[in-house]
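pinned: reference chain
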Amino acid sequence: MAEAKAGSRQTPAENLLDYIPHRNLPWDAAADGLVTLRVARFSGRLLQKYLMPHLKHPHIAVHLDAFGSWVWQHMDGRLTVREMAAGLEQEFGDKIKPVHQRLGKFINMLVERSYVTLVKPAGQRTGPSGAAGEQPRP
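pinned: its structure tokens
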């Protein structure tokens, strides 16, 4: 095992539960509460500018299940992932267990696809790079 050098500072790993997710996509909620995300077919600016106006359906519909819909609707910029996990447990009980693993995997998937952005709440320490609002390492 490697040992830390004398005088080096070790920083604690960033915890996903301490971040606040912010939505980056337009979305719709059906009467039954299920959410549909509208993802642009193309990400390049030139394709969006010249090709998308000619398409019949410029967006791809991503349908979320009940758990994903609940999480998406609560990504309003106020709740941390930890608070969302507690709300999921309260809302769905044993059906969502293990809540932290499932929620973490879902949010990491959304972050990888740029559907959401994770922001460190104000008043908390920044990561080792010193940049506030930096995304945690998976």
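why pinned: The chain has four helices and five strands. The domain at 16-119 is CATH 3.90.930.60 (Outer Surface Protein A; domain 3).
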